Amino acid sequence: MPLAAPRYISYIPLTDLAPDPANPKSHEIERIIASIRDHGFVETPVADERTGLTLAGHGRRSALIEMQARGEQPPDGILVDDDGGWLVPVTRGWASTDDRQAHTLLILLNRLPEAGGWRPGPLAAILEDLATSDPDLLDSLCFTDEEMENLLRQVDPETLAQGPDGTHTPELDPYDHDQADTGDNERGTNVSCPACGHLFTPGR
Fold first, then answer.
1. Dihedral (C-alpha) 149, 154, 157, 160: value to the nearest 10 degrees?
2. What SS3 class is residue 194?
């Protein structure tokens, strides 16, 4: 006997993906549109079976509506029906017990991803790899100079000894004697910014 999936993905008309009027989250629609253009439609919205309203994905919904209004081609991950309407994948199967629970989850689904912050070492390694291999992808992440400086001040140079592929070595200034190998396994004191090459001393 086949198992009934409590959660499933269903393609529905974009026009049927109703927003929740109580949604308190604002969005940078142009950044979402750029991401969808670059990578396709990856993260599916979530709908509440009780209300029929969107729980997560208001920004993605608005971005798709704007892209369609501009006459753009449907991005990867979006289907088109016989009338030319866009069909969007939606996670279904969860139903709230009341509006308070629905609104709590509406906020949590936005709050939880940002709550943990970033692990500075792995993040810096990925950003440096992008800076040297595909600057356009780095630019698409929209890290400000201040964010990059704050990140690099938290990074131990030893954590950047290898990039995400295990082979990349960060750029260090060969003329900076403070970075030179001491021969006794002591680490250098400076690390270069993956975006601009500027040297920072972590912890200062």
1. -80
2. coil
Confidence of residue 188 (pLDDT cuts 50, 70, 90): very low
CA-CA distances (angstroms) from residue 204 to 32, 186, 201? Answer: 35, 18, 6
Q: Which of 107, 113, 60, 68 is nearest to 86 (CA)?
A: 68
Taken in order of first residue, the domains within the chain and their CATH numbers are 8-115 (3.90.1530), 120-200 (no CATH)
- Which DSSP letter does residue 199 get? E
Between 81 and 175, the higher pLDDT residue? 81
CA distance 180 to 89: 53
- One-letter amino acid at 193 equals C
Q: What span, in angstroms and rounded, lies between the C-alpha atoms of 178 and 112?
A: 40
Report the distance separating Cα 45 and Cα 48, nearest Å.
10
Residue 94: strand pairing partners: 48
